[in-house]
Amino acid sequence: MNEETKRWIAQDKAHCWHPFTRQAEWCSEAHEPLVLTRGKGAWIWDSEGRKYLDGNSSIWTNIHGHGHPRITAAIERQLREVAHSSYLGFANPRAGELAERLCALWPRGELERVFFSDDGSTAVECALKMAIQFRMQTGEPERSGFVAFSDAYHGDTMGAASLGGVSMFFERFRNFGMPVHFVSGMEDLAELPEESTQSLAAVVVEPRIQGVNQMRPWPAGMLRGLRDWCDRRGVHLIADEVMTGFGRTGTMFACQAENVAPDFLCVAKGLSGGFLPLAATLTTREIYDAFLGGPERTFFYGHSYTASQLGCAAALASLDIFADDRVLECLQPKIDRMAELLRDLKQRSPCFHDARQCGFVAGIELRHPDGTPFPPERRIGEAVCLAARPHGLLTRPILDTIVLMPPLCTTTDELELAVAAIAMAVEDCRGAMNAC
Ligand code: PMP
Description:
Elements: H1 3-15, H2 23-26, E1 36-40, E2 43-46, E3 51-54, H3 57-60, H4 69-81, H5 93-103, E4 113-117, H6 120-136, E5 145-149, H7 158-162, H8 167-170, E6 180-183, H9 186-190, H10 194-197, E7 200-205, E8 209-210, E9 216-217, H11 222-233, E10 236-240, E11 264-267, E12 279-283, H12 285-289, H13 309-324, H14 327-348, E13 352-358, E14 361-366, H15 380-388, E15 393-394, E16 397-398, E17 401-404, H16 412-428, H17 430-434
Parallel strand pairs: 3-15, 5-6, 5-7, 7-10, 10-11
Antiparallel strand pairs: 1-2, 2-3, 4-12, 8-9, 11-12, 13-14, 14-17, 16-17
Helix pairs in contact: 4-13, 5-13, 14-16, 15-16
Bound molecules: 4'-deoxy-4'-aminopyridoxal-5'-phosphate (PMP).
């Protein structure tokens, strides 16, 4: 290990605290974290000069590849003007243009207003607060509850976290959040007594696929059915497209595959192409109009870096790339190739239990050949991802599901390499799996 790497790791272990991380284990002598220092296209390098395909798009953010020259140039151009200015009481040219272009990605009049924030959690948090305040200002204050789906994930701030259905993350905070009723799917929702739907402000959903729930797609038509259910009961629909937005599932937004327009759309991760923290909550004219009038109707929400000029400049460049490089058209054959590769993968080992795919997002679930899950404490998913590194793939599991969602710019050759790395890693871990 080179001296710089040693120093960076020592500083990290002495002072840093990582998300979702068992810190005692992280800081132990035996653990040698990778220090990531450089990226280009779908590839990322560590401080020892080793190169990996970025198999989870740097936690689901990167869209067109690292160091994309157009996004880099846009950020540099913006830096020469101003890096940041307050959005509280002032406008900025990049945010205005970005808001107009985000709305234009929807049929005219469907989503007309954009509220900027910083990350996926705050995009959802804004939608929740807007949904409640809207009811207070339209004579239905009793409509303050939410429906969310079991095993959903919507972020970690207290409001967004309370919509989360993954007990490991959220259970201990259950009493501190919003009033939420959890349902497992449309059948469960249909059984909600009509009276109880009258206290609902909104339903929150990850459209087409639940990400943190080990990449689990919804049945086709679910979203359309949910939109109709909401319309019949006057309940708003909040679409959390923090993961699915910006082409991941094959259409610009997952909702568009089922011709659904939500009342609130939350986007983040890929909005800036994965270059800078930026998020947005889009909503309709009807909802926005309820915030007009007296000062008490103001939406009191905002962060210091709201509508960051750098982030907005990156996002505009990302949208240009989508249009000029016909990114979504070029993606379709890669999605088809991914489906073939996943089919073949299932032949490679009886431990490939299921390979779920939605667009360019896949979750490859590992189990014993007889279908029983591995004991969670054996952390087989983690072991396989570690074993994939020497084969040139960097990704993270969700339990024993290996996530494969590389940047949209990934070529079919690179995709083949990624899937081959997973197959080899599983082979390398055969002993550990057999021992479970
Ligand atoms: N919603 C969904 C569907 C997500 O997948 C995530 C993050 N994985 C979030 C919200 C939270 O986003 P962030 O981590 O940017 O706060």
